[in-house]
Predict the 3D structure of the following.
Amino acid sequence: MRFPVDLRQYRRYDELTPWDSFVRKHFPERQIPTKRKERTALHKQVDAHLLTDPAFLALHQQFRTKIDLALALLDAAVERKLPFSLLLFDGWYLTEELVAAARRHKKDWISLLKKNRNLESYSFTLKDAQGQPVALPGPHIAVQDLIPLIPTTAYRPVTVAGQTYWTFSRTLRIPGLGKVRLVISFQNADLTGTCVILVTNRLDWSAQRIIAAYLGRWPSETFYQDGKGCLGLDEYRMRNAEAIQKHWCLVFVAYSFLHLDCLPPSPTKGNLPTKTIGEACRQQAQALIQALLLYVHDQLQQGRSAPDVFARLFAKQGVALAT
């Protein structure tokens, strides 16, 4: 079973401060670029001066990066004693800070690895199709440069949930992260197309187990799709952070109830959903309309006039309770 349990709101630095306004205040002659690269360059030129402004400094100190928020979520989950032992995240969050926090809390982790990440060349050996060692550049080699050097004979098929993947795995070291288990996976025996690169602190796990565990992250993606498509996650009309977070929490609660409705009636029948969140929403909408029609029919049967029934249905809550 999977449920959304916590959240943190991220606000961009330029929006939170607000950076543009302070630049205009202190550097009225400077043109503020819109492109990311040019804005980054301007940040380096003016931020030291902006931090001398107490108002800007106070806002600057409130800023939290996405990594900061991820660390806060992890700490909160441990503090609340949520039953979990494994963290799953994408390559953007694969940082020394998050890995260190997982180690501190004694949690395992699996992450996607970006293709431009460096591996420590001396930490592993690679052999060609004839079994001879392959000379690797050093002291580091990017994953994208390693993949073409791996012979096809080094890949092994593994099957996870009915899908076969062709995988290469090695224990090696990544700068800043230490010793990890690397898995490179293709969806076809020709080793063509896009590959997925996973990395984990569990050096003893097989490629099959690592892939199967990481697939457990997919429901977080479907939650965002269902939340936005069926539950109005991104359709709030509030202006302050507290109200927005309340809206999100209500979506979390609605999603959790709907997810329970999607599960089999008995644990012996497994824990995979028997229907989608969309189907559950449509069933709930149908049940609500049915209850409304039956209520109207019952009121008319009791002798109430149609205008009176409609007046009660569409009256504001306070008025309805007073009548």
